[in-house]
Structures are given as C-alpha cells and as structure tokens.
Amino acid sequence: MRWIRAAGRGLLVAAVVLAGYVTSGTQAADGARGGGRGPLTLATAGDLTGYLGPLLEGWNRTHPGEKVTLVELPDSADETHAQMATDLRSGDSRFDVLNIDVAWTSEFAAAGWISPLRRDRFPLKSFLPPVVDTATYDGKLYAVPYVTNAGLLLYRKDVLAKEDVAPPRTWAELERAARTIAPKYGLDGYAGQFLPYEGLTVNAAEAVYSAGGTILGDEGERVTVNSTAAREGIGFLARGVREGWIPKQALTYKEEESRQAFQSGRLLFLRNWPYAYVSASGRNSEVAGKVGAVPLPGPDGPGMSVLGGSNLAVNSHARNADSAARLIAYLTSDRVQRQVLTRGALPPVRAALYRDPGLVRKFPYLPTLRASVLSAAPRPKSPRYDQVSLAVQAVVHDAMTGHQTPEAAVRRLARELADISHRG
Ligand code: GLC
Questions:
Q1: Ligand 1 center–CA 269 separation, angstroms
Q2: pTM of structure
Q3: What is the pLDDT of residues 28-64, one digit of tens each?
Q4: Concatenated DSSP letters for 104-119?
Q5: What CATH number is associated with residue 187?
Q6: C-alpha 77 to ligand 1 mean position (Å)
C-alpha cells in the first residue's frame, strides 16, 4: 500500500473464514440483536447535496412498517465521528444503521459497536473491488460499501486556456501556474482541505503517497513515515503556504469552505472530491462552464489519491436488524446507486455505472474517477486509526504554519505514531 496493500490475500482468507462463520448460524449474522422488522434510524454525516432525505422517502413509501428516520450529523468527518462514538459507547444508541466513513470500519468493528453481516445478502461482486475491502475487518464483513470517493484536481479551464497552458500533471506545473498565472487573474493559487481534521490527514497522505512514500505498514503496526518521500510530500504543502501560492485562509478549509472558494471564483486550483466538481459546474456556480478536472498531480506525473467514501453498518444494539439489512440492500441496489450519483453527485460503488454511456455523457469525469478509485490508497485497518489521524493532522498543521520544518515534522510524526502503535 501506501498505508498498506494486502487486499487480495486478505479477501481470500476472509471468504474461507466467513463461510464457516455464516453456516455456524451465529445470531449476529444479519446484524444485531433484535433480528426482526420495524422502524429504523439512519445516522449520517452532513448530506452536502441534500439528496438523502428525498431518496429515503422512496423506501418509506414502499415499506410503511419499516420507516427510516434520517439523523443528520455535522459536515465534518471528525465531528460526526465524535458524535457517533459517544452515542455508541453509551450502549444506548439512537442509531440503528450508521453511514460510516470508510476510515472507521476497523475501529467500530474492533470496539464491538457494529455487527458482522452475511456476505450473501449483499451484491458485493457488483462493487468496485477496493471498496469492498474497506468494509471488512478481521476477515469479516462489518459494513456494506455505499459511496466511494477519490480526490480530483479541479482547475479553471478558462484561465488555463487563455494562457495556453495544459492542466498540470506534476507539482512543478501546478506550482508554476499557481504562483505566476493565478495572480494575473486576481485568483489564489491552490487549496485543499487544510484545517486540522480528517481532511488534512487525507491531503497530507496524498502528498506523501504521490511522492512515493508511506505512513504506516502492516495495518498500522509499523511506522514507515520517516523517509525522503514523506519530507518531500509535506514539504510541498508547507512550501505552498510559505510562498503564498496556497492562501493562508486555506488552513481553515474543510470540503465545503474550499468548494465555496473555488465556486465563487477565488481559486485557480482545488483538490476536492467529485461532488465539488458537480457543484462548481452547476447552475448556482459563478464558474459554471469554466471548470475542468484531472487526476491529482505528483512530483513527476499523476499522483495518488486516498480512497474515500462511506459504508453502511448495523449497530450491534440495533432494533430490527432484519430491516436494517433490507434497507442497506435497498441503498446499494442498482437503481438507488444510480440516484446516489444523479441526485447526490456522489460516486457510486457499483462498477457497471462507471461504464454506462448515458451516465458518462452526463458526468464526464466518471472514467477519470474510476481510475482514481481503483488506484487509490485505502487507510490502514487499524483499530486506532482515529489516533493516527489526529497525530498526522497536528504535525502537518505545524509544518504548514511554519512552526516546524518538514524534516522535524516527519521525525516527530514517526515518534508519535510509534507511541500509538506501542499503546496496543
Ligand atoms: C470525504 C471522504 C471520506 C474522508 C473525508 C475527509 O467525506 O468520503 O472518506 O474521510 O472526506 O474529510
């Protein structure tokens, strides 16, 4: 991997272990304790495109005895994580089905907060392969992929065309255009999600991987970050702020703030998830018709994205676990996955949709996105991923604000990650 890559082998072992697990008829096979049908709550991070409520109405109309109530938590991955964790830890959870970030499956599974699921209830073979792996832990399926994600570089097509410059494939090209072209048009150069939260971990990891480095190996047990490549990756971000082609304000951006900056015509380049491309190309955007998207650049050519997205899991204390599994099957059906894309502007997990000519016409970035998802680096399956991410955020923030050199930051991060993995 970048974080780690042993997915192929892991899946094979998982299939064998699970076959035994499922036929042994343990009560957890369908989800949680109450195995029956009835009403549900679904907790999710902020629904940025406002599509999920209307989509669930479709289920509620056809399943009057199993109505689902949507509980929308904050936009930021970290705040949603904190609220879900507090709720689940209490043992008296309000949430039956949880739409969890792919980064959290291992932590939630290891803590016993979510139940293993029966593989044969869900169309796992129809999904893009890397997303299925994000839903497994310790050889078992603990969630069902729902949305995937990969970072893209959005750029102002109109500005680059006027300058007769191609969209950047390398950091040097990005830096040059951000430094010299952006100011001519009264624009800031480049931004991503640089506030200290999960988004900064993602952006920093992408920079490190793109330079050929890694952060952790062996699913979080081995620290591999002390490398020239990691210094180069973090150095790229720190240099941007120091030289001014990353605006200082970007240190306060999460997904939405960075999208708004780009969409209101203040930025030449933006790293964000595909929903931002759809939004910036849409009716309410000041840059509609002027937006292009390419893979993230790296030092010598295309870089690497972190694999984003979310999985649907069933609370181990859920009421009505059968209905929970039925709702998840509905949300991952071909028809609903299509709506996740067309109404939610979110990347679906079903592989066939990326090759659907009608959809590709409407969402021209789908082939690029598919390639980015297939080559994206998953986050480590560490039950302590939350602590790992906090350490990365804090250290990279210090490097980007100039409080520590990239060299010192990488050394400190290596020490902190070693402490976390020894904590056991
Ligand atoms: C998006 C991704 C998610 C990631 C988060 C970081 O929501 O889908 O995987 O952790 O952004 O902010």
A1: 19
A2: 0.92
A3: 444 445 679 999 999 999 998 999 999 999 999 999 9
A4: GHHHHHHTT-B--B-G
A5: 3.40.190.10
A6: 6
